[in-house]
Amino acid sequence: MAYDSRLRDLLGISLPIIQAPMAGVSSPAMAAAVSSAGALGSIGVGNTSVVGVREMIAAVRERCDGPLNVNLFCHQHAVSDSTVEAAWIERLRPDFDALGATPPTALKDAYHSFIAYDEMLAMLLEVRPSAVSFHFGLPPATTLRALHDAGVVLLASVTSLAEARSAVAAGVDVLVAQGWEAGGHRGVFDPDAPDDQLGTMALTRLLVREAGRPVVAAGGIMDGAGIAAALKLGALAAQLGTAFVATDESLADAGFRAGLAGDAAHHTMMTRVISGRPAGCLANRFTAFGATVQARDVPAYPIAYDLGKALHAAGKARAEFGYGAQWAGQGAPLARPMSAARLVATLAAELEQAA
Prior knowledge:
The structure is a single chain. The protein is of the alpha/beta class. It is built from 14 helices and eleven strands. It has two domains: 5-75 and 111-252 and 335-354, Aldolase class I (TIM Barrel, Alpha-Beta Barrel); 77-110 and 269-327, no CATH class. The chain has helices at residues 5-11, 28-36, 50-63, 82-98, 118-127, 141-149, 161-170, 200-210, 224-232, 242-245, 254-261, 285-290, 303-317, 340-354, and strands at residues 17-19, 41-44, 68-73, 131-135, 153-158, 174-178, 184-185, 215-218, 237-240, 269-271, 279-281. The strands form two sheets. It has an eight-stranded parallel β-sheet. It has a three-stranded antiparallel β-sheet with strand order 7-11-10, with no helix packed on it. Helix 2 (28-36) packs parallel to helix 3 and helix 3 packs parallel to helix 5. It starts with a helix and ends with a helix.
């Protein structure tokens, strides 16, 4: 099958496939295997220090010399509300009690945003990954110019035409059209603004027609037939995340893998109670709790995540995985456990057959 050459030329990939940069799940081994197979491997580093990111990039490069995408969070700085946070701790205290654990006495913001992270920028300009992608918004124009000047290709997740136009005006090279079907955090620039909840196919076609940049379709795509459908709508590639959660190189724990292979995969839902921002997740104890909660009662991202991670750790210590951030999209029942390299080869064969 002949593919549009623009992404191939930009990113050095032979297949129109991008492995989503799933922080906490994607690993250097996964990214290297994917890139070695002709697609674009990615690492999600939104919760990682500068030293840690440097080590992850080095670990990928030790395994392969293919392209690499490094994904960064560009959320606005969290505004702490001690009253909301204290009430949130008390609301979840019974769950900690049931696990024989004690919740934190206060919550902290442990995630750096790339909006103002000079040390991270300096490191990226030094090591120069093939691509850098952004989630939750965009960094300052000076940061974008510096990365461009260093020869780095820039991608940004967008969920609407308005966000796409902002990214294009800022100089982003490639738009990742994240549909409502996608797993993980919604890439909305403002999590408290109205969300039109556009599906992947509608959003992809809209951006192909109106945005004036190469488009990558993301959300609910699990096999070669899905990739082919995205390409027929004008996308130049598809980004798959949930499809890679079950791979050998994934960092997903046993509880996450079991949920993905079970009935929970058929009931994914959007919740903000785990982290403070809307995210697509397997049905579990946390999402069931979230169905009863108003958005105003949840602390800001990523402050809420501090309690969510503590609760998950307490649960894992008791072999209870139902409080995990088991991010997954609506295509979750189609996940297939195998190596990342074999998955890419399978997707390529399915795409060829579907074309």
